[in-house]
Amino acid sequence: MTEKNRGWLLAKRPIGIVGREHFEWREEPVPSIGEGEFLVRNRWLSCDPAQRTWMEIDTYIPRLPLGEVMAAGSAGVVVQSKHPDFEVGELVSGAFGWQDYAVSDGSAFGGLVPPLKIPTGVDPPTALSLFGITGLTAYFGLLDVGEPKAGETVVVSGAAGGVGSIVCQIAKVKGCRVIGIVGGARKCRWVREELNADDAIDYKSEDLPIRLGETCPNGIDVFFDNVGGEVLDAALANLAVGARIALCGFVSGYSGIRRTAIGNLYNLILQRGTVRGFLVFDYLDRAMEAIGALAGWAGEGKIKNQIDVVEGLENAPDALRRLFTGENLGKQLVKIADE
Amino acid sequence: MTEKNRGWLLAKRPIGIVGREHFEWREEPVPSIGEGEFLVRNRWLSCDPAQRTWMEIDTYIPRLPLGEVMAAGSAGVVVQSKHPDFEVGELVSGAFGWQDYAVSDGSAFGGLVPPLKIPTGVDPPTALSLFGITGLTAYFGLLDVGEPKAGETVVVSGAAGGVGSIVCQIAKVKGCRVIGIVGGARKCRWVREELNADDAIDYKSEDLPIRLGETCPNGIDVFFDNVGGEVLDAALANLAVGARIALCGFVSGYSGIRRTAIGNLYNLILQRGTVRGFLVFDYLDRAMEAIGALAGWAGEGKIKNQIDVVEGLENAPDALRRLFTGENLGKQLVKIADE
Asked: Residue B277: which of A260, A273, A276 has the nearest Cβ?
């Protein structure tokens, strides 16, 4: 193989919003494989807010080492194999990182995410969004942590993002009133018109605590939170009795401003509310349940899978950055190779 | 009856720590009763942090009106009765307020706390502490919300207070390691020696986040929080996977500084932690279960019921203030009349 293996290395710990300056471009020969290994040609990269966190601090995985390929969920095709379970030509998803080619021995990234064959009939972008970590996060976070009941009011922050847009639609399937919190009028419109949310709030131009009071006159029963900080605080001020808050992400805090003044935790006592953090990795043994349900709803037209595509491996840092500047609509992906 | 009915009226909404300046002394004739009513001679008043909140804001009850008798849990004896269920000479507990005499028609304070006969053999101070709202709060908050398992590490803030001191002891009964957080060396000693806590931390003279790390090397499994604010934040930084936080009170916030910067909520995601607020009123239908268990443990010498008594109705404002200056050891009561 004479082609190069292009990639992005983690070069700097991010302070503030993540961007191109935190990575270093690398070109090297395409690696060769040993016994028990296979080579993947990456085609699509998944952009996830958690990547920003992996770059900075120890979490459920040790923080990423400087000088190594930036970690990311991805999907591609097996192009060489000395591994008994993976054959050349098979489509696979895994955490193959920001590079054209990756060698895998089939072990799980961080002990959490193993390489998986993408089922026939599923395209890689869908495998990385609705049927991937994104869809599973939405499914288990809303249903297992939030436990919405028909007729209840569900509020979703980051409602126009990858996870949030699926959460909104699952909540509608379950017969809930759904209010999306987003940044900007375009996303508001999209959440109302395309996701069929009952209402949407633009936190950038509207007074969030007041608008939550108006749109949730009986209080919030379930809050699915991707944002944290002031958005979480505003929701805490508007809880119904027995409210459940599913803490999925803290996008507001990932860019460094983590010590936001939270003033309304006391309301958890008055309203007997619950805040529960979760990680999708704890639910992976039930992945088939979620994928089956999501596929069913998608087939019935009840869930749309919106993806937002940036072209080119060279633009991966910009694509990741879009999550934190709020530019993406739906699931942010990077397409790095044609089929 | 020629005796006067002395009492304290709520005169001002508190800002900062509550004290004598927020109340007005009143003397009036002892009230007479109508059909279906009974007259109680108050003997003991219960001091509870929630009273500070009732004075300031609407909660599960509308905030207390200015110019009316300050609300408080209390215990006394029926001295006149035209009520079929209450006889002269019976000991009763209820929310009869900061006054010598109160008329009751048997209805529940705020729809929550009805007048109850104190069982034979239970003295009023015990009825207002271990077998009252205080003991029930400790019992249901720790066991139903915190769900501690034997061998787990339980941390209790306000550990030398009325609720906290009982929580520590129930956790020991359940086979947990118990760390108490208190203010001052005297309370540290008391929590270690009298409550048999495995360790105690003086948040005033020690670095709480660091000491929590030292005393809970495997993280906190259950945090029973009476304090909120920085104490809660320090606990959030030291959670074990699957930690449960029972939010009982927010004493740090009751004196006005409610918008404390909470920086570690994100850790709820990493550790899959749960924060749950509760009100004891939701558990009153199971009061007998709790009282039975608490009485059993007290009988076996496993739970000591520590009370802290201020003498005289005229000193009720000072007694309440003690909860917020941290002067009380165990349950704060006011004795206002002899038997």
From this structure: A273
